[in-house]
Design a protein that fits this description.
Layout lengths: L4 H21 L5 H21 L11 H19 L7 H18 L15 H20 L3 H5 L17 H21 L1
Helix pairs in contact: 1-2, 1-7, 2-4, 2-7, 3-4, 5-7
């Protein structure tokens, strides 16, 4: 992505840390959580790779079409998985956004990106609206219900559940990736 190197590195760190945590979540005993964590790890590491500042490393010409193919396949896999639950549709949108950014980056030189247009493209604006809503909704879902209802710390949480099976950590992971996606789309 094109932008200041310091914010680029922060984005790389956020996405790589999120991807690493998602890899650890793949050790869950729940199969559905393992599958979701695998897709989220791929998304996190892919976003980290795409966010490396171009002042430090300019990817070779084949990298952007490679990203488009990988995330296109990821989107198709998520679309297939959406048969069993609509929560997979977010992964379809996320993979589509990655394909869109990869295609945009492949078709535009580093210094001319975004020049010659008035305003932002409709697809970029639509994705910005979607991810803004997603981030806000996910953030609200992180508010502990136990605190609102008067329960004590850890109310309703099983002590037998491992740290990889805690839904609030998975939501925080998704929130971090949603914020990173917003930053990447804004940098376009």
């Amino acid at each position: 992505m094109h932008g200041p190197a310091s914010s680029g590195w922060l984005l790389v760190a956020l996405c790589a840390a999120t991807g690493a945590y998602c890899l650890l979540r793949m050790r869950s005993s729940v199969e559905e959580q393992r599958r979701a964590a695998g897709g989220e790890a791929l998304m996190g590491f892919g976003m980290a790779a795409m966010a490396v500042p171009t002042a430090v490393f300019t990817p070779p010409g084949w990298a952007w079409p490679g990203y488009a193919v990988v995330f296109g396949a990821t989107g198709l896999h998520a679309l297939w998985a959406a048969r069993s639950g609509r929560h997979h549709l977010h992964h379809v949108v996320g993979a589509g956004a990655m394909v869109y950014m990869a295609v945009a980056m492949a078709g535009s030189p580093a210094h001319a990106h975004g020049q010659g247009t008035s305003g932002i493209p409709v697809l970029t604006g639509s994705l910005l609206l979607y991810f803004t809503g997603y981030v806000l909704l996910t953030g609200v879902r992180l508010i502990p219900v136990a605190a609102v209802s008067g329960g004590g710390p850890g109310a309703g949480r099983s002590l037998a559940a491992g740290w990889g099976d805690r839904p609030e950590l998975a939501r925080a992971c998704r929130l971090a990736m949603g914020i990173a996606m917003l930053a990447m789309l804004l940098a376009m």
